[in-house]
Specification:
178 residues; alpha+beta; Immunoglobulin-like; 2 domains; 10-stranded mixed β-sheet; 43% strand; elongated; binds copper (II) ion
């Protein structure tokens, strides 16, 4: 008798273990499915990507003619990169901020009567499935009121805001002037 009762208890005990394992297994499967679904959603949305970001080293302000004598705030430079839009909707870069610059503008470069000029523009279109090149002599991000020298080896953190409400933070290495 004693042996039988003991056997039943053991059986009950092992059922409990199997039940527990079953619940754990179900939870694991549910988690894996949830992760897969989330990943698929990301794929459906596509991506906005920045490649090869860089910032040109600042020019020593005193050498180039300081406008108001406040050399701490007068450095300016440009940021360049390629922005790719692999989503299926057109996107537009509408604002940029940088912790090293008091003012950041989006600029285009134009040539008027053989004179190269740049001027602020409202934004840069990045069509669905397309890309935008920001490069010296073309579209660029203008960093103004830079409060410190930016030299090769430094990194500038840029926050790009897009019309859709998305934003990207990019760490751009500083490259020397050519
Ligand atoms: Cu500019």
């Amino acid at each position: 008798m004693e042996d039988t009762e003991h056997g039943r208890l053991r059986l009950r005990g092992s059922r409990g273990v199997w039940l527990g394992l079953g619940i754990v297994l179900i939870l694991v499967v549910a988690l894996v499915i949830a992760v897969l679904l989330l990943r698929e959603e990301d794929d459906d949305e596509g991506m906005l990507e920045v490649s090869d970001p860089w910032v040109r080293a600042t020019i020593a302000v005193d050498d180039t003619g300081d406008m108001n004598g406040d050399s701490e705030m007068d450095r300016m430079t440009g940021a360049f990169m390629t922005i790719r839009n692999s989503t299926d909707t057109d996107e537009r870069l509408i604002a940029v901020s940088a912790d090293v610059a008091a003012v950041v503008e989006i600029h285009e470069t134009t040539v008027d009567d053989d004179v190269m000029r740049m001027r602020p523009i409202e934004g840069i279109d990045i069509p669905a499935g397309g890309s935008a090149e920001l490069q010296p002599g073309g579209l660029h991000i203008m960093l103004m009121g830079v409060g410190q020298d930016l030299v090769p080896g430094d990194t500038v953190s840029l926050k790009l805001d897009f019309e859709s409400g998305r934003s990207l933070v990019v760490d751009a290495p500083v490259r020397p002037l050519e």
